[in-house]
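Hi everyone, sorry if this is the wrong subforum. Our group has a chain we'd like a structural model of before ordering constructs, and none of us has done structure prediction before. Sequence below.
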Amino acid sequence: MKNSLQAIKGMADVLPKDSALLEELEHIVSEVFRSYGYRNMRTPVPEPTALFSRGIGDATDIVEKEMYSFEDSMNGDKITLRPEATAGLVRAAIEHNLTYGAPQRIWTVGPMYRHEKPQKGRLRQFHQFDVECFGYEGPDVDAEIILMLARIWEELGIADSVRLEINSIGNAEERKAHREKLVAYFNEHKALLDEDSLRRLERNPLRILDSKNPAMQAMLNAAPTLLQSLGQESLAHFEAFKALLGNAGIDYSVNPRIVRGMDYYNRTVFEWVTDKLGSQGTICGGGRYDGLFELLGGKPTPSIGFGMGVERVLLLMQACGAEAEHNTDAYIVHNHIAQAQTLAEYLRDEGLNIIVNAGGGKFAAQMKRADAANAYFALILGEDEIANQQVTVKTLQSGEQTTLPLADLSDYLLQMLAQDYDDAQ
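Answer:
Right subforum, don't worry. Here is the predicted structure as tokens:
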């Protein structure tokens, strides 16, 4: 349409036909979080720009070139649309003394913003589930969130299409020692580095290990690993984490090239990856960040968390054959709106999902709308039914129909729907 407005590039609409699977994903994930004792928390999308430059790190790609930042026209404050959730949640925890006296298990969900080249599975406005455990130091909670994610993949039907990769990136001193070894190694092989890697060499050499440049892979595979620089405490934490995963029957592989794009991570890091989504194969990643609270002005608080990409998980569910439709139990076809709405409210009180035909129309047209709404039943309220306190129930898939007293209607519908559910199992 000429001169019509469109969504900003890289920021997608979710249409009604696509929302059923998203709603199923949100329901399953939130219920699993609840079953593990995690409580929901929400923070604003805009945050002070300094939160991310201090928390994520000035030398990261996110801060250098991906953030949506602007100056508040009212007071000149520098503001950024959050590129990730952890820093904002930690800011809120410090501001409200959330961890005073007790650790916290929390989760959130919402939009994040990064100015990247849009492609399948990578949007400028994307959505994440985010879990944070504040105040937990040992490897037991590291393992707990892996078990929780494994349960989520199972309930979403994608467990056979994902695999777990883990690593330890040690503490600050160990990363410094590894950084020196890494810079020396990359300088020896400087001729093989591409332009992006040369830019990262002095400021953030760990990120070079993330390069997907095929010409660099052999050289990167031979680079010194952080595991080789770990001290006794970091190694003990990592070994205990692996032992807990093994005890729980969780398959994993150690990938020494897993690093994190944010400076605040330490020790345990992990990714869940798939081969079904091409280059956007990571659907979930996270790790431990024991120093972030201090970095943002709080008291020392050992913590761990992860972010799960909603759009990527949906793509993987679809690649695995998942389908979902909005559940409409019955569509009321009528020529008396008041009686139809009264009946609908009664049936909703009984736990049924009901659509009442709106806008009038002949019964034949209304029946077509019932089919289009994917309703299981059409409930017909004509002159005869209203006069006799009855309703005609038509099962749309089979075409069978029967006329019942209104008093028997809800029991009949619930029984038929329960039987259909049992037959489908």
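For your construct planning: The CA atoms of residues 392 and 403 lie 4 Å apart. The longest helix spans residues 16-35.
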